[in-house]
Write a structure and sequence with these properties.
Helix 5 (109-125) runs parallel beside helix 7 (145-159) and helix 8 packs antiparallel against helix 9 (183-196). By secondary structure, the chain is mostly helical. The protein is built from eleven helices and no strands. It folds into two domains: 27-139, Serine Threonine Protein Phosphatase 5, Tetratricopeptide repeat (Alpha Horseshoe), CATH 1.25.40; 140-236, Serine Threonine Protein Phosphatase 5, Tetratricopeptide repeat. It starts with 8 loop residues before the first helix and ends with a helix.
């Protein structure tokens, strides 16, 4: 029987150390793993750093824009309230109008509000498509002003004889944070739009809701009158 000779641990280590190719492969393998992990960590760190820097720059720019835009807005709002709509929109030579504020300070809250004012100004001027474009880009979580914007878009579509679109936006106005101050007027507009579409049953529902849910609102008087008229026409 052949005798098996075992290699001692010291001999095994010596053979590995003496085998330069084997040792190089081990070292290179470990080095590649370290390089790969280092690259991944470096990329991740760079992305995080870029995000943080970008966010800080955004905060700084938006803060600066807000300060400047608010200063410019003061004159524009003054002209708007004075019904000097062209100056409100385009400025007076010293102060920027709503349109320039929207373009020059896009990151500011003032620019967002300027869209509401610009849309309302265009509606007053009879430029209904421009009114729609600005009001649709306006956004707010405010209790009243967002619903007001929806209602004004509905008014503009109604002027353009796009009754279905008007109904869509009047519905949005009605459904946005209902309240006793403005929701009744939006329901009345919705009812009248349905009447223009000759959908008397749907119109009747809006007037009934005003009477039921907002019976103490000023609009309830007309709602009762319009409801009675439609009930007669529908034979109810």
């Amino acid at each position: 029987m052949a005798k098996v000779t075992k290699e001692s641990p010291s001999e095994k280590n010596t053979s590995v150390l003496e085998n330069s190719d084997s040792l190089a492969k081990r070292i290179l393998g470990t080095s590649e793993v370290l390089k790969k992990n280092f690259r991944i960590l470096s990329i991740a760190a760079s992305v995080i750093a870029a995000f943080i820097i970008g966010y800080l720059i955004y905060l700084y720019i938006s803060s600066e824009q807000e300060r400047e835009a608010q200063t410019e807005m003061f004159a524009s709002v003054y002209y708007f309230e004075a019904d000097s709509l062209n100056k409100a929109l385009k400025g007076d030579g010293n102060y920027k109008g709503f349109l320039a504020i929207i373009e020059d300070y896009p990151l500011s809250k003032a620019a967002n509000l300027a869209r509401f004012y610009a849309g309302t100004a265009y509606l007053k001027k009879g430029e209904f498509q421009k009114a729609i474009e600005h009001l649709q880009k306006f956004s707010s979580s405010d209790l009243l002003i967002q619903a007001r914007a929806y209602s004004l878009i509905g008014d503009a579509y109604l002027e353009l004889k796009k009754t279905d679109d008007a109904i869509t936006y009047y519905k949005k106005a009605v459904d946005y944070k209902p309240n006793k101050f403005f929701t009744p007027s939006y329901l009345m507009k919705l009812g009248l739009a349905y009447e223009l579409k000759n959908d008397k049953s749907s119109a009747l529902q809006q007037y009934e809701r005003v009477q039921k849910d907002f019976f103490d609102a000023p609009e309830a008087v007309n709602a009762k009158k319009y409801k009675a008229k439609l009930e007669t026409e529908l034979g109810k």
